[in-house]
C-alpha cells in the first residue's frame, strides 16, 4: 500500500506541475526554482514533515523534497556552526543527490548522442 500511496502522491505533484507548465507562461527553470523554494518554505513552517511521513517517497523524490532537504541541512548547520551554516548546510545535506545527478548525467552524455529539437 505504501508504494501505491507514494506513486499517487508523486504523480499528483507531477500532474499539478504539468498543469502549471501548460496553463502559464512560466519557463521550466522558473517552475523548478518555485518548487524548490516551496519545499523550503513548507519545511520551515512545519508542514512538509507530516506530509513526508504520509506520502513517503512520493513527497521526498520531487523537487519539493529537495527544497525540504536543503532547509533541514541549513537548519542543522546553523545550530552547529552559527551564521556560516547558512552557506554550507544545504551543500552538505544534498551532496549525495547532487553528485549522483552529475555522475549519471555525465554517463548519459557518454552513452547517447544529443540532438537539437526542430
Please explain how this structure is put together:
The structure is a single chain. Helices cover 82% and strands 0% of the residues. The model has no long low-confidence stretch (mean pLDDT 89). The protein has one domain (2-111). The chain is an all-alpha fold and 118 residues long. It has six helices and no strands. Helix 2 crosses helix 5 (63-81) and helix 5 runs antiparallel to helix 6.
What labels describe this entry?
single chain, 118 residues, mainly alpha, 82% helix
Task: Look at the structure and give the mean pLDDT.
Answer: 89
Total strand segments: 0
Listing every helix as H and every strand as E from the N terminus to the C terminus, the arrangement reads HHHHHH
Oligomer: single chain
Low-confidence stretches: none
Instruction: Give the proportion of residues in helices.
Output: over 70%
Shape: globular
Strand content: under 5%
**Count of DSSP H/I helices:** 6
Q: Alpha-carbon distance between the termini? A: 43 Å
Alpha carbon gyration radius: 16 Å
Number of domains: 1
Break the fold down into its secondary structure elements and pairings.
Elements: H1 2-23, H2 28-44, H3 48-55, H4 57-60, H5 63-81, H6 85-111
Structure in a nutshell:
With 118 residues, the protein is an all-alpha fold.
Amino acid at each position: 500500500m505504501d508504494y501505491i500511496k507514494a506513486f499517487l502522491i508523486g504523480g499528483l505533484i507531477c500532474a499539478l506541475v504539468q498543469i502549471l507548465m501548460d496553463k502559464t507562461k512560466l519557463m521550466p527553470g522558473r517552475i523548478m526554482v518555485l518548487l524548490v523554494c516551496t519545499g523550503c518554505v513548507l519545511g520551515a513552517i512545519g508542514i512538509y514533515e507530516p506530509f513526508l511521513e504520509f506520502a513517503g517517497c512520493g513527497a521526498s523524490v520531487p523537487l519539493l523534497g529537495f527544497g525540504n532537504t536543503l532547509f533541514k541541512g541549513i537548519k542543522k548547520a546553523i545550530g552547529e556552526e552559527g551564521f556560516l551554516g547558512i552557506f554550507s548546510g544545504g551543500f552538505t545535506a544534498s551532496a549525495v543527490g547532487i553528485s549522483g545527478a552529475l555522475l549519471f548525467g555525465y554517463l548519459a552524455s557518454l552513452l547517447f548522442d544529443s540532438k537539437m529539437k526542430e
